Amino acid sequence: MVELTEEPGTVAANEQRANFLWQIQQTWNLTDIVEYNVLSNGVAFKVLSGGEWTLADMSALPHVKQIWPATAAVGHTPIQHTSGSILFNVTSAATRKGLNRRALQPDPNGVKIGIIDSGIDYLHPDLGGCFGPGCLVAYGYDFVGDAYNGMNRAKPDSDPMDECNGHGTHVAGIIASGADRFSSISALGAYRVLGCRGKTSLSVLVRAMERVAVDDMQIVNISIGSGLYYASYPDAIMAQKLAERGILVIASAGNDGDLGMGAISSPATAPGVIAVASLHSEK
């Protein structure tokens, strides 16, 4: 992942990315190219083959601001459900008719909450029973597809259904269940970045963060983490940029407490982000 110097959303930024990609493609054979132009002016890519250019050569270019490895990130859930599991897939054809609980109705005066996770089972009646304008889950996108494991090629589509994990649906259920008592919701956004194995990559995670900004979410929950300890990872930097836009960013601190009190994973390490954790002691 490479961040360039021009401000995102400008003609100059578009030209800078195009020129940068042209320049490095004279040496490297690239694949899975992703461009960013909302929170950051940058690109992400994989190098298949190429010449003798090194990352040091790239970082020496005058328009390169920062370079990061596009490493994997994991969802902060201890359980990986399988497709059809009764733990989350309650809206299968066999069981949907048995669910008679009240669906939460969107409040036009409420807040818009984005959930970057495994998608949402929006067919569940407690979560509105539909997807799109007028539904509780009104926004969303699947950035990865079921088979994505953080390393292979993503297969995105416009349907953010939680197909095989359940964690995003769980998070959405907690948010919706508290709406009556604490606040009102105008819409939820389901931004699916986890495949069935509960893994993603930083390049995908940043794409979802940009979509959150484009969709004007006011709050975003991210139960995903990558690097420990530092706020210099790209997901932490982009989470800070969301916070600077006035978006309330809530991120899980991770599941690495056995490594010490400081073992918080990004993006929860970012300034301006609310890091959430639970504590448990057997003593």
Automatic annotation (TrEMBL):
It comes from Thamnocephalis sphaerospora. Pfam families: Peptidase_S8 (PF00082). PANTHER family: PEPTIDASE S8, SERIN ENDOPEPTIDASE. One of its GO terms (biological process) is proteolysis. GO terms for cellular component: extracellular space. The keyword Coiled coil does not apply. Residues 109-280 form the Peptidase S8/S53 domain. Belongs to the peptidase S8 family. InterPro entries: Peptidase_S8/S53_dom (IPR000209), Peptidase_S8/S53_dom_sf (IPR036852), Peptidase_S8_Asp-AS (IPR023827), Peptidase_S8_His-AS (IPR022398), Peptidase_S8_subtilisin-like (IPR050131), Peptidase_S8_subtilisin-rel (IPR015500). Keywords: Hydrolase, Protease, Serine protease. GO terms for molecular function: serine-type endopeptidase activity. This is Peptidase S8/S53 domain-containing protein.
